[in-house]
Amino acid sequence: MPLTAVPQSRRNAMHNQNALKIGLFGANCSSGRAVTLVPERWSGNWQDNLALVKMADEAGIDFMLPIGRWKGYGGDTDYQGATYETITWASGLLASSKRITVFGTVHAPLFNPIIAAKMMMTADHIGQGRFGLNIVCGWNEDEFEMFGVSQRDHERRYEFAQEWWNAVQLAWSDQENFNYKGEHLDLKGIRAKPKPYGGSRPVVMNAGASANGRQFAINNCDAFFTRADRDSLPETKSRVQGFKAQARELGRDMDCYTVGVVTCRPTKKEATDYYTHTVIENADWNAVDGILKKKNLSVETVGEEAFQRHRRHYANGMGGYPLVGDPDQIASELADLAGAGLRGIAVSFVNYLDELPYFVDEVIPRLRKMGLRE
Ligand SMILES: Cc1cc2nc3c(=O)[nH]c(=O)nc-3n(C[C@H](O)[C@H](O)[C@H](O)COP(=O)(O)O)c2cc1C
Q1: pLDDT tens-digit profile of 64-79?
Q2: What is the distance between the alpha carbons of residues 25 and 356, in angstroms, rounded to a whole number?
Q3: CA of 225 to the centre of ligand 1 (A)
Q4: What is the structure's pLDDT at 3?
Q5: How far apart are CA 197 and CA 178, in angstroms?
Q6: Gap between the terminal Cα atoms of the chain
Q7: From atom 6 of ligand 1, which residue's Cα is the shortest distance away?
Q8: Which of 139, 206, 219, 345 to mutate to test the pocket of ligand 1 (most atoms within 8 A of CB)?
Q9: Is the CB of 23 under 6 A from ligand 1?
Q10: SS3 string of 277-303?
Q11: How far apart are CA 297 and CA 249, in angstroms?
Q12: Residue 185 C-alpha to ligand 1 middle, in angstroms?
């Protein structure tokens, strides 16, 4: 039976016309992105993920973005110690939803590209064209050691990822029998059927922070996740414009997204109090210190002041843009981010299921009035 055509533009727009896309980030991991001891922190279990995708789908949330994480960060909660493998997780969520785009986060060096292409194509058929791919090229060294894989230096890491992505795209193309030989990959007699749903490929994103990572996104991705700084929106704007212009020079249309951490309550005071309670007074500081150690951030390497800044930054959703306030404030800050040229934001909450309904009831209608949501 022929599959319904899904134009690439429709996939890139995540199947709707929302000017500011909103996604949920990190729900496949225990504690999500809140490095906190509070008992209501996110379980990350399947029942909660399933309830969340149904709630988000119903509410018109655009996407869910998981974290490809293989090993907890330790601390008192073993932060992100229990995680679902993301393509499997996405397949389950796609089978249980109708509109939302669900990403899988794939570490290119850990997955054979032809197997990965097939796994993703399967998820894409289950979701009838709603699967998205986050390509991760390498991040936490100790995770790679667990697989007996050593991490390449930055340049080689992204060179490898380019070959990996070329091979995946070929497997998804009309080619029937082919070889692929690069510097890192030598694949012979490839056959890969069926192809992704409806004759186009899944939307693809990357969040590299280095120059090589950024260039990889500009060369290949539909969505590039980049940092937005609360104190420097004009700078965010000029960076976003710059990235998009570089992609356009290559004839590519690339959108920029960012990551946020939402604490939305009826009053500013309630929001600030809850934020202080969760990510300051009750932060899992042992886990935060473990994260910093992995990144070689210590008083000795960066000095006391910067170290304390990094500690606060990582306790707060591993460094996402903090959105703390009442619905008016959150909506206006989101509008500012959209004004800076960002096409969307992936947000997290301490407990997604408890907090999403208030956000949907109060913030989304304000964004709609501002013309940012359908
Ligand atoms: C939105 C976002 C999602 C990310 N997801 C993951 C992930 O799931 N797993 C992972 O190991 N790294 C993840 N990363 C890390 C990036 O892929 C990247 O490795 C990191 O930003 C460092 O950039 P670089 O590779 O250019 O040095 C993510 C980063 C961001 C901002």
Answers
A1: 999 999 999 999 999 9
A2: 12
A3: 9
A4: 67
A5: 21
A6: 33
A7: 67
A8: 139
A9: no
A10: HHHHHCECHHHHHHHHHHCCCCHHHHC
A11: 37
A12: 23
Task: For 91-136, write each residue's pLDDT tens digit.
Answer: 999 999 999 999 999 999 999 999 999 999 999 999 999 999 999 9
Residue whose structure tokens are 């500012």: 336
- For the chain, give the number of residues: 374
What is the number of H-type helices and E-type strands within the chain? 14, 11
Beta bridge partners of 323: 262
**Helix, strand or coil for residue 344?**
strand
Task: Indicate which residue's Cα is closest to atom 27 of ligand 1.
Answer: 210
User: Residue 226 CA: which ligand 1 atom is closest?
Assistant: 31
Q: Are 157 and 107 in contact (CB under 8 A)?
A: no
Total Cβ atoms within 10 A of residue 350: 24
Q: Is the CB of 121 under 6 A from ligand 1?
A: no
- Domains within the chain, CATH numbers bracketed: 8-261+325-366 (3.20.20.30)
DSSP string, 204-266: EEE---SHHHHHHHHHH-SEEE----TT-HHHHHHHHHHHHHHHHHTT---EEEEEEEEEE-S
Distance from residue 35's CA to the centre of ligand 1 (Å): 17
Average pLDDT over residues 19-31: 98
Q: Could you tell me if 359 and 320 are in contact, meaning their C-beta atoms sit under 8 angstroms apart?
A: no
pLDDT at 1: 40
